[in-house]
Specification:
- It is built from seven helices and six strands; from the N terminus they run βαβββαβαααααβ.
- The chain has 187 residues and is an alpha+beta fold.
- The protein has one domain: Alpha-Beta Plaits (2-Layer Sandwich), CATH 3.30.70.
- α5 runs antiparallel to α6.
- The protein is 34% helix and 19% strand.
- It is globular.
Length: 187
């Protein structure tokens, strides 16, 4: 059964629930879904909003999900959970009540290796304005984001990027110390 890696984050509360409770609820809803066999969550972390100055700090985490769903089906399921919890997609990288990103699914490269390479090569400016027309796996910015890699290192340090061959632990170690230090475990 394929293993999916999911990044979770939020930086504004949903209704009366605090941010961490909302993300825990997202995992509970997902766990009760057909096609989801097991979920292993990471610890929760406080991280600054990205891009800098774009909103309040985030609570971030990750989950390792055993699923029989196809990547597109799982992504639809993640979007449905976000919507259930009040997420409205008004602007790219805006504050949000729940963000569930499909980071990787086993060693799948979607839609193909060249497209993954092209999106990895995009400079940050273009990456902030362009939206991929379809699902790209692994996530093309995975290797740059401490707020994704630190939680992933909790649950899947050995997972290897199918294009670069680097493990989560290796990608995390390659980030500047300052970036890693911004990701602080919550009690």
């Amino acid at each position: 059964m394929p293993t999916a890696l999911i990044a979770l984050g939020a930086n504004i509360p949903s209704g009366n629930a605090d941010i961490k409770a909302t993300l825990c609820l997202a995992l509970a809803i997902l766990k009760d879904s057909d096609g989801i066999d097991a979920i292993q969550p990471s610890r929760w972390f406080r991280t600054p909003a990205f891009p800098p100055g774009s909103g309040p700090d985030f609570v971030n985490g990750a989950a390792r999900v055993e699923t029989g769903l196809e990547p597109a089906e799982l992504l639809e399921r993640l979007h449905a959970v976000e919507e259930t919890l009040g997420r409205r997609r008004k602007a790219r990288w805006a504050p949000r009540v729940c963000d569930l990103d499909l980071i990787a699914m086993g060693d799948a490269m979607l839609p193909d290796a060249q497209t993954v390479r092209d999106w990895i090569a995009l400079d940050l400016g273009k990456a902030q304005t362009l939206v991929p027309p379809r699902l790209i796996l692994p996530h093309p910015r995975l290797h740059e984001r401490a707020f994704v890699l630190v939680p992933l290192a909790d649950i899947a340090p050995e997972w290897r990027h199918p294009l670069t061959g680097r493990s989560v632990a290796e990608m995390l170690a390659a980030l500047p110390e300052a970036a890693r230090a911004e990701v602080v475990a919550l009690p």
